[in-house]
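Q: Study each token:
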Amino acid sequence: MDISDYIKKIHAKSLLSSISSCDNEPKQNRAIDIIVPVFNGFEELQLCVAALLKFTHKKHQITFYNDASTDERIKPFLDKLTDKHVSLHVVHQIENRGYLHNINFAMQQSKNDVVLLNADTQVTENWLEELAIIAADKNIGIVCPLSDNATILSLNKSCLENIAELHDFSGQWYALPTAVGSCMYIKRFIIEKFGVFDDYYHPGYGEECDYSLKIRQADFQIACAPAAFVFHHGSASFQDDANVLKQQHQDLLDLRWYGYSAEVENFSENNPIHFIEDYLTNCKQENNVLHVVHGLESLAGVELFTKKLLNDLPNTYNNHVLIYSVNPIPGLSRQSFRLNENTKISKYQFFSYSHHTKIANLIVNIKHNELDIMFMRYLLFGQYKMVHFHSLVNNGSLIWPLICEYLAIPYVVSCHDHFVACSNFSLLK
């Protein structure tokens, strides 16, 4: 395969997926049952209800399953709401079933696709429409939105002011190793085929992971719809027992599904959400520049020059510096921090990958599948007006400038010294 064909292949792998084979009737045109399990958390519930009423079409039925809340404000609050709004319904459990039994009961009452939505969430504009668009793909069983607090679906807090720009990702999705339980769109045929959640995970935590692995085993996908966003407070009903429950049920998942934790860690190290964060960070900036350099900590010439350049560039430039991480970053694709107001540093996974070519004992990749996909995604999502390469040896791969050329992004390669020509500074053998 020549380089141009290789870059085209990398480009295709770097894009988010689009829906393919669709159901006959678009999901966004169907009535969907929204199930909200409730146990105390009155203040969070009020916010949840207000957001649902504001951003959910009345054709969709919203049912609150009150699991015998001990907070005496819950029952009259829900009763008053259902008297006022025809799309809202409430079921009061006589005794506390526990979260898992409550939602299993709720799913069995529905005949439609369902959304399981925690009572400590706040939906946003077009949340359900965007989930339904992705659910229309026949190969997808469960769809989840992005959030501010949902493990592998959590956007960095610095991006939240620009979440309205997520609409640019409408109709796009990417695969997940597991659904996240705070908000899940589950298709009816999935419930009919696989049933409800395993009672072993009572009273909650981990049941959605187990369920996800079951349906993935049958070749259905778990999808993130990045155009949908739902705020999540977190653990409003399990405050005292949350950490204990999580650990107990994680142990069960690891026993039942060998390799699951490693798969989630690998996904986290390559999570597309970071490139969506770059998009949200840069979408309103005019002069986004990506700098590629092997490091900034050393006092050598390349590092000193690059730091001086970053300090001297006008404030109108938004600089993003891409550096390899000297150490592996378990469970993360990168670590980012700010050098100053206009400069963000991102250290990416490097030595956790295999490398095959060296010059003077330094890594020189002619091409590298994982790193080339990563770099392509930086360019596709980061909206950079220019890329400045300060070094390519021991950093990424040598075809990165060609990727810029393929995407028609201007680039500069600075030759700070003669290393590319000869690793010996004296240019002598």
